[in-house]
Specification:
By secondary structure, this protein is an alpha+beta fold. The protein is built from 5 helices and 15 strands. Bound molecules: N-oxalylglycine and manganese (II) ion. Manganese (II) ion binds next to loops.
Length: 274
């Protein structure tokens, strides 16, 4: 793979591809990008000059597209969700550790996020590596456990965004729930990854509420240690492809008074097994 892509590992989580215009990527390069996403969790590119149609075409070469239920869509392209914070808004989208769509029975594979407008400073995204966050000792202890993932407390009536200036993200009647193994086998890499996250997972099947919450708190604290985390900065034209099955992400909200706009395309996934 290394021969078709100029790709550097990013300490903590992910990789960065240099010198590639994704519009001109060969099939071998697309395959190498997909493999890198599966194994490294996130792959970033700088200086892309992409129309919405270009971004959609690129995303489709990685995986089929699925449309997010909750995010506002760009006017002409339903495949593209707007992840936006205006000069006047205080709340941002994704401002806590999470992975997208884990409340679906077939969670999204990942996303293709393109920076359209970035604040002068701040607005970085943190990614955490859920392969590395799973040491062998923990694996044995949590093997076989399952956990429910819910969306109502975030996107439903009175959900996390209600009462904020991103309130259009709450109050949705369609709030799926799904149960997944706490540790999944990544369908693309065959490796085990931790698949619970602080935004959508708050209990463990078969454990008393307090015990489940305590176990999750311990797993979450372990997972966000700096050695498993990388910070990605954006400028217009920076694009990242990430894999929800083996990473978490966190959108920093440290640029009040400035505009930030990202175009997100969600990639379809499938059911996950232990
Ligand atoms: C998302 C998300 C992070 C960001 O699009 O799912 O969490 O930094 N975005 O905008
Ligand atoms: Mn997200």
């Amino acid at each position: 793979m290394a021969d078709v892509l100029d790709i550097d590992q990013v300490e903590g989580c992910g990789a960065r591809v240099r010198g590639l215009d994704v519009r001109k990527a060969s099939d071998a390069q697309i395959d190498a990008i997909r493999e890198a996403v599966f194994h490294r969790g996130v792959v970033a590119f700088d200086d892309q000059v992409l129309t919405p149609d270009d971004q959609i075409a690129f995303a489709r070469r990685i995986a089929p597209i699925v449309v997010n239920r909750y995010f506002p869509k760009t006017e002409r392209w339903p495949e593209i969700a707007k992840v936006e914070k205006t000069e006047d808004q205080k709340a941002n989208i994704g401002g806590g550790w999470h992975t997208d769509h884990s409340y679906d029975a077939a969670p999204a594979m990942g996303s293709v996020l393109l920076a359209i407008h970035t604040p002068p400073t701040g607005g970085d995204t943190l990614f955490a590596d859920m392969y590395e966050a799973l040491p062998d000792a923990t694996k044995a202890r949590i093997a076989g456990l399952e956990a429910p993932h819910a969306s109502a407390h975030v996107f439903g009536e009175g959900g996390a965004y209600a009462g904020t200036d991103q309130a259009n993200l709450s109050g949705h009647p369609d709030t799926p729930e799904a149960v997944h193994p706490v540790v999944v086998t990544h369908p693309g890499s065959g490796r085990k990854a931790l698949f619970v996250n602080p935004a959508f997972t708050r209990e463990v099947v078969g454990l008393p509420a307090e015990e489940g919450a305590a176990l999750l708190t311990e797993l979450y604290a372990h997972a966000i240690q700096p050695r498993f985390v990388a910070r990605y900065a954006w400028r217009p034209g920076t694009m990242a492809v990430w894999d929800n099955r083996c990473t978490w992400h966190f959108a920093m909200n440290d640029y009040h008074g400035h505009y930030r706009l990202m175009h997100r395309i969600t990639l379809d996934g499938g059911p996950l097994d232990a």
